[in-house]
Amino acid sequence: xxxxxxxxxxxxxxxxxxxxxxxxxxxxxxxxxxxxxxxxxxxxxxxxxxxxxxxxxxxxxxxxxxxxxxxxxxxxxxxxxxxxxxxxxxxxxxxxxxxxxxxxxxxxxxxxxxxxxxxxxxxxxxx
Length: 127
Prior knowledge:
Largest sheet: none
Oligomer: single chain
């Protein structure tokens, strides 16, 4: 929120831009916008700059307006089907196996299964 506020405050002219002639350190610019943000949020939480900051932060992270429009458009039109095969749109999810770290007992179980498979492939007896 503070980063978005700094951008909005710079556009509004409340804080100065870093120009090559009068360059401030990044810490000074952040400090100034942080003080302004904290003061406004404490004493005037409905200030126009804070409203703009909230809107920009929401739009920058996730465009909730577009998601809401899509949900309204597709309301009652989506059919869930459980298939016995992988669909083309789901294939990328299955191709990312191994990208999610596994820890604890699940990791040990996977290692045991891999060891069992290797032992079976080599023809050695399982213990």
